Amino acid sequence: MGHGRRYRCVPLFGPPxxxxxxxxxxxxxxxxxxxxxxxxxxxxxxxxxxxGKEVYAHISRGELxxxxxxxxxxxxxVEAYVALSRFKPREDLLILDGMPRNVQQVKMVExxxxxxxxxFLKCSDEEDxxxxxxxxxxxxxxxxxxxxxxxxxxxxxxxxxxxxxxxKYDPAVIHEVDANGSPAEVLHSILDCLxxxxxxxxxxxxxxxxxxx
Length: 213
What we know:
The protein is an alpha/beta fold. Helices cover 51% and strands 14% of the residues.
């Protein structure tokens, strides 16, 4: 990237365990959306590699991966999906989960991302979230999430480091969703935000095609 167009993007934002992965997974099945979770990219990285060792050292302590490394690994992953034609940047809206993670990254990602809206999954009951993450960890064998101290540390990191990211964006682009609703309700609210963005993208492409004819 950096050589032309930025990826059209809608980040999924919110505290740990709020359901970003669940909703991203559902959206991924709808044509025109490509969901990428930075956490999944980190979890699937080869632990034997130099990048992998460094990522694991941070994740296992419930800390964020350093910015340069995050962006380097994320770019490699996105470029691989583009090369495989699984993500078609011209047609697909990138639903990005896990970036930007802090205020420094807001500047760093500007070069790669054209952010149309931000979906902010808000949780009204944090204790419920902590229990949800523990249950999920046991079910999905996610060792980094089974320890309650690590989970609480992740929430603390989220409030201190990640939550201020929202202040860097125009409130008009932030779409708030109550994450404590049922998955179908949450999806309904997310689609209310995404459908107009997808229509804009569709219209822009059609105009471009007409001009190119």
